[in-house]
Amino acid sequence: QVQPVEYGGDSVKPGGSLRLSCTAPGSTSWGCGMDWYRQAAGKERGWVSSVSRDGSTEYADSVKGRFIVSKDPAADTAYLQMNDLKIEDTAIYFCKTLAPSPAYSRCMGPFGRGTQVTVSS
After folding, report:
1. Which of 25, 28, 22, 11 is nearest to 49 (CA)?
2. Sign of torsion, CA 10 15 17 18?
3. Residue 80 gets which letter from DSSP?
4. Of 13, 22, 33, 77, which shows the fewest CB atoms inside 10 Å?
5. What is the three-class DSSP state of 1?
6. Per residue in 20-36, pLDDT tens?
7. For 78-89, how does the pLDDT look when each residue is reduced to its tens digit (9 = 90+)?
8. Is 26:97 a contact under the CB 8 Å cutoff?
């Protein structure tokens, strides 16, 4: 198991874009995908998007059409391209390795420490 490292958070204006990165050394060879979550102040952490080990993607309704998740297996890195950002996207964004099944125990690691995204005018 590995604790991923997220980076790329910043402050942007509404309508702006950011790309977050999440690196988890070894995750590709273990067969892991990657999940993205976010937690706004005073709220529970919620799921945002997933990219599976075969590259298939899923999105929460709140970000569908605006966010794009991808991964670079060679770099053990996943990306979250965030476009048309809204004030309500303000949160700490976390990533976590995604296990295709319970048999992939090495993919059941902890959340990263997160990266702050602030959207304000």
Report:
1. 22
2. positive
3. E
4. 13
5. coil
6. 999 999 899 888 999 99
7. 999 999 999 999
8. no
